[in-house]
Amino acid sequence: MRFEDYRLATEIKRNLEAMGFRRPTDIQFKSIPPILRREDVLAIAQTGTGKTAAFVIPVVQVLHERKKSARTEGIKCIVMVPTRELALQITEVFLEIGKHTRVKTLCVFGGVEQAPQIARLEKGIDVLIATPGRMFDLASQGYIKLDHVEILAVDEADHMLKLGFLKDIRDLIRFLPGKRQTLFFSATINEEIKKLAYSLVNSRAIRIHISPKDPVAKNIQHAVAFVEMDDKRFFLERFVRENPDIKILVFVRTKVRAERVCKAMERVGIESQTIHGDKEQQERQNVLELFRQGTLKLLIATDVSARGIDIANVDYVINYDLPDIAENYVHRVGRTGRGDKKGQALSFCAEEEKAMLTEIEQFLNRRIAVLEIDRNEYRETIRMTEDVPDKWKDIMAEIEEAEKWKKGKRK
């Protein structure tokens, strides 16, 4: 089935055509019809499968048709998201799909001045994409009215729970009309998420679970390389130098570590930028835009700030540190190979991270391919700079001595 076969407004079909959307993905194919019928939907699908468009397309269609046939007032749809970056990303999708329709969209989040957001709210909007903190701030000041909301969409629900937004979601529900449509989208499901989902949607909700055997998308090739913790920077440097023209997204465990890796790259003449929770919102947006445009080739990120970001044509994801939570591996590598594009990912695994690797492989129900590095290649890599730790000078000397001994024994 093609998008042109759906009962969608001509404007929406043209927009989808311009965006390169020809056929729906599995999650879109299964979600769009029930949402158009105004049914509640609980959908679980792996990252990178088009979940955002799966609810944006029918929501824009419903609101566009509604505004053509009747005078409406107030916010009709609220989309709750965990991070500012995701809020901006979803807003872009609404604006692209809703171009030339009657649907007005606004994104609100904290970390920036609220005056421009208030000015737009006062002009009237149909769709509000929001992070919980700023939304409740504006609601308490009387700028956001919730009594006309007909659709509630919760996106990246699993991530919202990890960030502690459960109370915010429940508080929001208390202020919304009882008669509404609820759309619940998540990349993963567990008992806690299940309980939340069932408490939001009605008992007749359509349940959609796209669950392939391998939770990593089939168009992503991913592997692991065993590298000592102190040597990871040398391997990252080597990888960047060998691939100067590709976009590389690097994941690290903490904000402090992100800055350290960035400085390590700077010391060897490689340009990079970081994105994490300590950055001002405008700085984060500027860095993301540089990365999107390809002006910046190396972006170093933490899980919290980069989860859910959809950046076109990320060629490679590198897990500089393995994630503490196994399912985050899927979200990380899913930043490449978006849609029908191919992508690649490589994880650096130190001795002390092998337990994490085992957890990740258990979550995936499969072993991750190993990129073998022989001793000579390893030594060449860590000799790339003059800043070789003393301990490695000793280790290399021992290896060389052992090799000389073996050669002598063979003779």
- DSSP helix fraction: 40-55%
Q: Helix count? A: 17
CATH H level, superfamily name of the largest domain:
P-loop containing nucleotide triphosphate hydrolases
Largest sheet: 7 strands, parallel
Strand content: 5-15%
Low-confidence stretches: 386-395
In what order do the strands lie side by side in the largest sheet? Answer: 3-4-2-5-6-1-7
Q: Globular, elongated, flat, extended or rod-shaped: what is the shape?
A: globular
Overall structural domain count: 2
Mean pLDDT: 87
- Judged by helices, strands and strand pairing, the structural class is alpha/beta
Q: End-to-end distance, in Å?
A: 70 Å
CATH architecture of the largest domain: 3-Layer(aba) Sandwich
- Radius of gyration from the CA trace? 24 Å
Fold-level CATH name of the largest domain: Rossmann fold
* CATH structural class of the largest domain: Alpha Beta
